[in-house]
Amino acid sequence: MSTAEQATAPPAPAALRLEQVLAERPAVRRPRGESRLRALDGLRLLAALMVCMYHFTGKNGEVAASWNQSPGTVFPTLSQLSTYGSLGVQFFFVISGFVICMSSWGRSLGDFFRSRISRLYPAYWVAVVMVTGAAVLLPVVVAPVRPDEFLVNLTMMQQPLGVERVLGVCWTLWVELKFYVLFALFVIWKGVTYRRVVIFCILWTLAGAFARVADNPLTDELVMRDHAPFFVGGLALYLIHRFGSDLLLWGIVGMSFLLGQRYSVMALWHPAEQGDFHRSPYVIQAVVFLAFAAVAAVALGWTRWADWRWLTVAGALTYPFYLIHEHLGWFFIRVLHRGLGLDPYTTLALSVASLLSLAYLMHRFVEKPFGPKLKRALPAVRS
Questions:
Q1: What is the pLDDT of residue 7?
Q2: 333 CB contacts (<8 Å, ≥6 apart)?
Q3: Where are the alpha helices (DSSP H) in 58-193?
Q4: Under the phi-then-psi rule, with left for phi > 0, alpha for psi from -120 to 50, and beta for the rest, what region is 68?
Q5: What are phi and psi of 147, to 5 degrees?
Q6: Phi/psi at 274 (nearest 5 deg)?
Q7: Distance between CA atoms of residues 108 and 192, nearest Å
Q8: How confident is the model at residue 23 (pLDDT cuts 50, 70, 90)?
Q9: What whole-number distance in Å separates Cα of residue 246 and Cα of residue 23?
Q10: What burial class does residue 281 get, using C-beta atoms within 10 Å of its C-beta: 0-12 exposed, 13-18 middle, 19+ buried?
């Protein structure tokens, strides 16, 4: 075949198939309306409550001092369930992948970063101040950090710097921040499209596998090999929501679940009981599956019936509640149970209700007024 004939020859079948798979796709169906978002808000609060129950009744440590004994002794039945609540974090990551892909569609890089900064920092700053103030007033529960550590905590960079954390849950915020940066650099910078998100999902999954082979701390930190499958699964589920089902997208979701359940079992399963708590690897796998399945139900439109307005409020409370629940919850438990002598279940119910109420106040008087102001004050990123 001549050079001219080679230049005009059609592409090979394999290459053609790959090009078709990764081609830009028109939306098969429009993104569904507010009812879907309300269902997703409900899942966010459910994940936060899972983590809350784990911190209050499913583990030992500082919370045991607040109860004056192990939560496994105080709640012999409940603790056997709530010890799996730590998987609410992985649930959050799947939801985050879905939400970030949805919220970044059609946005510029500057718009994306301004929205994330104005969303994360106002409530976070208030939570750091509140928990630090509580530690100063009642240091027997949690010792306050030094002033220099407090100031570093305001940056949300304490995790990589090895600084004492004010908020125990803030390690997950560092994971989220890294996800935002990766997604922004490799997808949002050029504009979010079906093709770019799919390629990002595939390459990030492969990078995680190679990082495990390299076994290098810096590579692990950058690639997030253990957490990446949950974000990737959420990204693919949003594409299913926006464009409809196809084998490639469900393959990405299936691969993400398989890798995610492996990480979860290895990180959380204790073959022998440790203290009062024991986790079954089969239950861990089931909870991870249900987390993926719940977001998949939202992606497929099976939750359109969940159109209750209170779910929107629940979603708004999730972030401030998640920030403050752990440490402030220990203070509530110590005062209500050991100070006022309330029984454990009443203490637990009042603590959760009080924290949800405080989260509402943070949303109403911090996030709603100051988030938009911060967003307007931030300069747009010029190209």
A1: 43
A2: 56, 63, 66, 67, 347, 348, 351
A3: 62-67, 71-74, 78-82, 88-104, 109-137, 147-153, 158-161, 170-186
A4: left
A5: -55, -40
A6: -115, 105
A7: 9
A8: low
A9: 13
A10: middle
